[in-house]
Amino acid sequence: MLSSDFLDEFKRVTEAKWRQRPINPHLYGFQFQQGTRWNPGLSEEKIAEYEKLLGIRFPHDFRAFLRAMNGTDLPTLNIYGYRPEPPHTAAGVYSYPRDIELVKWLAEEVLEDRDVLTATLAAGEFDLTTALSLVPVYEHRYLVCTPDLKSSVVLSVYSDQDAIVYGTSLQEYLQREFVLEPRWGSDLPIDAAGDD
To answer: How many domains does the chain have?
Structure first.
């Protein structure tokens, strides 16, 4: 299970990064706004309520994550590089109950063509057949919920024909998505990533 030490350090590193890094005007795609913070975690009662609304039991790792932090406080921002298009915002990391309707919609939409998605992932040697549900975590990243509550695989799903395993565990995913710089391309431990 995700340890409180890992989660404390993860929160410290990500918030330090967001505090220091302004929006890059050259990038397309959603970016965390400067000063973004994690919302406080959820109580056991709220986590159980969240599970009930989705009709699923969360993996142990996701429950530990939700106890420590519950989504981000500011929306992410896409300024579309230097195009004259007005900026757009998105939810950031999904939060309960703020984003429950979006989470429910995304969870249903991603499995609309489950057979094609299952075949796509099977080509990458991942078996989706045991999944009871896919729960959106951030943008197009989904936590796979199965009867095995010790498993916390995270998928990146752009479409039912464009999907990969993005983290073999929630911890690996969190480091890859929020701590590691894309140019590094290696799985560094969280404390090696620094506060850049």
So the answer is: 1
pLDDT in tens, 89-99: 999 999 999 99
* CATH number for the domain harbouring residue 120: 3.40.1580
Helices (H), the chain: 4-20, 44-54, 60-68, 100-110, 114-123, 170-174, 190-193
Lookup: tokens for 22: 């302004």
Look up the domain containing 80 and give its range: 4-193
d(CA 97, CA 86): 28
61 phi and psi, to 5 degrees? -60, -40
Q: How far is CA 15 from CA 3, 71, 83, 138, 178, in A?
A: 18, 12, 29, 16, 10
Q: What is the pLDDT of residues 118-167, one digit of tens each?
A: 999 999 999 999 999 999 999 999 999 999 999 999 999 999 999 999 99
